[in-house]
Amino acid sequence: DQQVKQNSPSLSVQEGRISILNCDYTNSMFDYFLWYKKYPAEGPTFLISISSIKDKNEDGRFTVFLNKSAKHLSLHIVPSQPGDSAVYFCAARRTGGFKTIFGAGTRLFVKA
Amino acid sequence: DVKVTQSSRYLVKRTGEKVFLECVQDMDHENMFWYRQDPGLGLRLIYFSYDVKMKEKGDIPEGYSVSREKKERFSLILESASTNQTSMYLCASGPWDTGKKLPQHFGDGTRLSIL
Question: Residue B42: which pLDDT band, with cuts at 50, 70 and 90?
Fold first, then answer.
């Protein structure tokens, strides 16, 4: 049973445009959400996170939006750059829990 | 800068062999994790440890064991390697979560092939 779902295996975007990556979760106990970025032959690197007490968090070109009622979060990248081409993993945790639950990932292609 | 180091980037072993994957972190983190990454399945937790000599099963522990004799080192052991254990293995570490929301840090992974 996948508690964190990324339903789009891949996404292709033109350079300079907005990339929107989506993620849904089923466990209402999750209160901390993260996005990781992974290049081939490297480990995932932490990108941005959001606590359930917020609905938006920004860091430069990256913004994460959280809709708790819909159990949905999204990552916006504006403007997209070719170097953003990577696999993006959505992840979730709950307070007091050791485990971070990851989605299957979305491969983003940014075309120059 | 934080550092999680996995001993091998690529490894080829034979069916039935006992395989050791090593991971070392230099951040004095309490928690360490082993995941495997497979296409379409994302990262799945095999085992984790929240202290020296402590270990907990993750979501897919079958066929694996772990060892944590020192705080900085967490080893994954494939007791008798099988072809369905061919995968990318990722080690991660993270601080004890006292309410501060802090991410895990990952190593670069070991791509393991079992022939």
Answer: confident
